Amino acid sequence: MSADYSRSESGERVIAESRRPDGTVRKERRVRAGYVPQEEQQVYVSRGAAFKASVPKCPGFEETSTAAPAKPKTKSAAKNAKRKEKRVTDPTPSGGGGAASNAAAAALQNLSLGGCSRSGVVQAQQTAAAPAAAADEEPSTEKQIRTLKKKMRQAEALAEKQGLGQALSPEEQAKLARLAAWQEELRQLEALS
């Protein structure tokens, strides 16, 4: 969209007044000497692009077949792609624990569910695999013990609150009801560590 320039009575270039779609009128605007509007300016071409365009092409050479992808991957994107590929090909969670770490993980999962009828079998597997997986599982077991102790402290505080005759909310009553299960789970975890 190039502007229509005209000459005023004084000899200056001007953009003539025009009418907008809503009916209002744009004033006549003076244009300085040497001004080129942005729409009419030439597109900048870097030296490298200009040189590449000026180099003669070999007959039969297809530049699109050897061209690199439009956007190269960054280091972090390449690293994430490798991790994702490794995760898809290697289904073990820790990468190399084998059966011992799988048994330990199953035992911990069983404990976090509050124990079930197979707990004796899982504990037997755990004691067999404990020396191999003890180094990997210590932080998570310790953390589970800490969280259970915190929950138990909160539940005991709620029991004292109830003993004083204060009303408990349904969430607080549910937390108080789980105290015995948490105590049993804490005993099992302490036996493992």
UniProtKB/TrEMBL annotation:
Annotated coiled-coil segments of the chain: none
InterPro entries linked: PYM1, WIBG_mago-bd, WIBG_N_sf
Ranges of compositional bias, category Low complexity: 125-134
Pfam families to which the protein is assigned, alphabetical: Mago-bind
Start-end of Basic residues biased regions: 72-86
Compositionally biased spans, kind Basic and acidic residues: 1-26
Superkingdom of this protein's organism: Eukaryota
Xref: SUPFAM superfamilies: Pym (Within the bgcn gene intron protein, WIBG), N-terminal domain
Residue ranges of domain WIBG Mago-binding in the record: 11-37
An example Gene Ontology biological process: exon-exon junction complex disassembly
PANTHER family: PARTNER OF Y14 AND MAGO, PYM PROTEIN
Protein name: WIBG Mago-binding domain-containing protein
Organism of origin: Chlorella vulgaris
